[in-house]
Design a protein that fits this description.
- By secondary structure, the chain is α/β, with parallel strands linked by helices.
- The chain has two domains: 164 residues, Medium-chain alcohol dehydrogenases, catalytic domain (Quinone Oxidoreductase, Chain A, domain 1, Alpha-Beta Complex); 138 residues, NAD(P)-binding Rossmann-like Domain (Rossmann fold), CATH 3.40.50.720.
- 26% of the residues lie in helices and 28% in strands.
- The chain has ten helices and 18 strands.
- The longest helix is centred in the middle third of the chain and has 13 residues.
Length: 346
């Protein structure tokens, strides 16, 4: 193994700052594993959820984080066929072709440091072959980061899962980065009516800039403006993870409307709906990363990002070194950051 150790951000305890420290690499790579030098990594709402324990108690602490980025191949196991040393690669959490490798075995302070098939909050990382895809060097690095999760989830949710029709009324609930991207995409598609819902004034303002026609700032889930939309909505993209917004979103759909679930709800929170309404035509669809297929979708999705109006410049908050990551996470949790913060490794 060429690399002996790396700086990284480690989740030690939930609801606490990440530990910024060096950790040790295994002596060799195993079947399907690729050693990547990370260039840029995005901070996603999924990592915020892990830190806050949205899905419940974390049995894998301590562990590394991050699931979207761009980097260069430093080394690989001989079994890996889809890339070679020096290749530029997109790092993505949705599986692609290639070996589904075993998780890397790192150590930190003489103890096991857990990791998934992909982690990106470190200068170097061992990635499973099926969680990376070779890309051309002409693909913008910031585009690549967005394609790792945010942009691919948004594009796929609109075009693959919902298949939104132009003459539609669409609600986007939760105007974080994925919500913003959906709004911008819908605006470019000239969708008839785009309605943004959030409880954060800054995010609502961003939604307006991205092309929302109507804005609903909610202070509680019984907001009159929200329920005035009943029976008027064709598509409802639930990006907030708020179970009450999910429940109410289903209620305001037209009889044949579709709700697409993107945000992750807190563990133990269950949806409530009348199943008869599903029998009569309403639809509930899960997104799962927009059903992104990295082997087929990268080129056409990158073309969408090359559109000047959907440029990464409209979504990237800034680029920071790893020692700023806890500051950035706190800003994201407080709602003071509405764009995508990028961690760079020099």
């Amino acid at each position: 193994m060429k690399i002996k150790k790396s700086i990284g951000a480690i989740l030690v305890k939930q609801n606490q700052d990440l530990a910024i420290d060096y950790f040790d690499f295994p002596k060799k790579l195993f079947k399907g594993q690729v050693l990547v030098r990370i260039k840029l990594a995005g901070i996603c709402g999924s990592q915020i959820g892990e830190i806050k324990g949205v899905k419940g108690k974390d049995p894998y602490l301590p562990h590394l984080l991050g699931h979207e980025g761009v980097g260069f191949v430093i080394d690989k196991h001989q079994s890996v066929k889809k890339c070679k040393k020096g290749d530029k690669v997109l790092l993505h959490w949705m599986p692609s072709k290639g070996i589904d490798a075993e998780n890397p075995k790192y150590s930190w302070k003489n103890k096991t440091l857990n990791s998934g098939k992909i982690t990106t909050f470190s200068k170097y990382s061992i990635i499973s072959e099926n969680r990376l895809t070779k890309i051309g060097k002409k693909i913008n690095n910031y585009n690549a980061v967005l394609l790792g999760c945010t942009a691919s989830t948004a594009i796929g949710s609109v075009k693959k899962i919902a298949k939104v029709k132009r003459n539609s009324s669409v609600v986007v609930s939760g105007c974080g980065l994925i919500g913003q991207f959906i709004i911008k995409l819908l605006s470019q598609e000239k969708i008839k009516n785009i309605i943004a819902i959030d409880n954060n004034k800054k995010k609502i303002y961003e939604a307006k800039k991205k092309g929302a026609h109507e804005l609903v700032l909610i202070k509680n889930n019984s907001n009159k403006n929200f329920f005035s939309l009943k029976n008027k909505i064709d598509y409802f993209f639930e990006c907030s993870g708020n179970i009450e917004l999910l429940n109410n979103g289903f209620k305001i759909l037209k009889s044949n409307g579709t709700i697409v679930l993107i945000g992750v709800t807190k563990k133990g929170k269950l949806a409530k709906f009348n199943p008869l309404e599903i029998n009569l035509g309403k639809k509930i669809k899960g997104s799962k990363g927009g059903m992104f297929n990295p082997d087929k979708d990268i080129t056409k999705y990158n073309k969408i990002l090359q559109n000047i109006k959907i440029s990464n410049k409209n979504f990237i908050q800034g680029t920071y070194k790893i020692d700023k990551i806890n500051f950035l996470i706190k800003k994201m949790i407080s709602g003071k950051i509405s764009g995508k913060p990028i961690v760079r490794f020099d």
